[in-house]
From TrEMBL:
It comes from the Bacteria. PANTHER family: HAD FAMILY PHOSPHATASE, HYDROLASE, PUTATIVE (AFU_ORTHOLOGUE AFUA_1G12880)-RELATED. GO terms for molecular function: protein kinase activity. This is Phosphotransferase family protein. SUPFAM superfamilies: Protein kinase-like (PK-like). Pfam families: APH. The keyword Transmembrane does not apply. Residues 27-259 form the Aminoglycoside phosphotransferase domain. Keywords: Transferase.
């Protein structure tokens, strides 16, 4: 599917919409995440990014291209400055094997598990990036919901309970190994639900490798990517997921593969909580619960992808190691329950 022949019908579809001929369009796959696939589309009019679901078995509604496109359109209407502008959507699977959409391509640097060639980050840059990342997350959580129409993209009532039950169900449906710690954490999450819920627009996968940084000022955030799980829900669930990705220096190495927050200069997880609390009206005294939920969710995402790999639906060699993410995140969550320390 990922060859020039497969691109021919896509190029034919795009030529009129991008005001160029198909032979002027160059399409290449961008390296990066573990979920939906992003392609770079180069034309005489400029560069664009194209998003489509992963090849093979679909995991969940997270791969709903039409919904992600609507999220970007609503964020643009709401005035959020760091989401790529949506351009066009196609639900015709005959064109590229699945629904897809085109959006603005934002030039810049993306930090994954190592620094890009020629890029250096000192402690001061990481400190400022930590602050800017949280400021951008807070901006998202404080967006107006009603007039912008963002409220239509989620159901905030009962959000926390639905998420907890949903991710537990996903784990057991994707389970491949007997991991008692995951089952212990699942039971704790069900019996320890918070009594108060908050409402805001949330990203649900917010971490450094979903940020595009300014190459001239590397601590400046130009755009936030991967809006496939964005919705209206409890912002503390969003913060909890970010904390789960926010690895520290003494965390297991396997949990450092998603975020470079473990390097000197970055805030600690406790610093993150205090920084957010000082700029938000929300009560963060129960962040332990949301952090444990975040760890469980990260483990389940890894488990789902590992299951696809083990069943032959995905061939990316990176996926073979994801069972170790499940194990490490599960143990970290269980340990956090026991020590009550984030």
């Amino acid at each position: 599917m990922e060859n020039e022949l497969a691109f021919s019908s896509l190029k034919n579809f795009l030529e009129n919409r991008l005001q160029c001929t198909s032979n002027q369009i160059v399409i290449s796959k961008l390296s990066g995440g573990f979920s939906n696939i992003t392609f770079l589309v180069q034309t005489p009019q400029g560069k664009f990014a194209l998003r489509r679901p992963p090849f093979g078995e679909k995991i969940s509604k997270a791969h709903d291209m039409e919904r992600e496109f609507k999220v970007l359109a609503a964020l643009e209407k709401a005035g959020y400055s760091k989401s790529p502008k949506p351009i066009l959507l196609s639900t015709d699977e005959s064109i590229f094997g699945a629904p897809f959409f085109l959006m603005e391509f934002v030039e810049g640097i993306v930090l994954r598990n190592k620094l890009p060639n020629g890029i250096t980050f000192g402690q001061s840059e990481f400190k400022k990036l930590s602050e800017n990342a949280l400021d951008s997350l807070l901006e998202l959580h404080h967006l107006e919901l009603e007039k912008s129409g963002l409220i239509q993209l989620g159901k905030p009532e009962g959000y926390v309970q639905r998420q907890v039950e949903g991710w537990i169900d996903r784990y057991f449906r994707a389970k491949t190994n007997d991991l008692p710690e995951m089952e212990n954490v699942a039971e704790w999450l069900k019996t320890s639900l918070p009594q108060v819920e908050n409402v805001g627009f949330i990203h649900n996968d917010y971490k450094y490798d979903n940020l595009v940084l300014n190459s001239e000022n590397t601590s400046e955030i130009k755009a936030v990517l991967d809006w496939e799980m964005a919705t209206v829900g409890d912002p503390l669930m969003d913060l909890g997921t970010s904390l789960a990705y926010w690895a520290e220096a003494d965390d297991p190495d396997i949990l450092k593969m998603f975020n470079m927050s473990h390097l000197p200069g970055n805030m600690s997880r406790q610093d993150v909580i205090e920084y957010y609390a000082a700029r938000s009206p929300l009560d963060l005294r129960n962040m332990l619960y949301y952090y444990i939920f975040g760890l469980f969710k990260v483990a389940v995402i890894a488990q789902q992808i590992f299951r696809r790999f083990s069943m032959g639906f995905a061939s990316d060699p990176r996926f073979a190691s994801l069972i170790h993410v499940v194990i490490a995140a599960g143990k970290k969550a269980e340990q956090t329950i026991q020590t009550e320390k984030i």
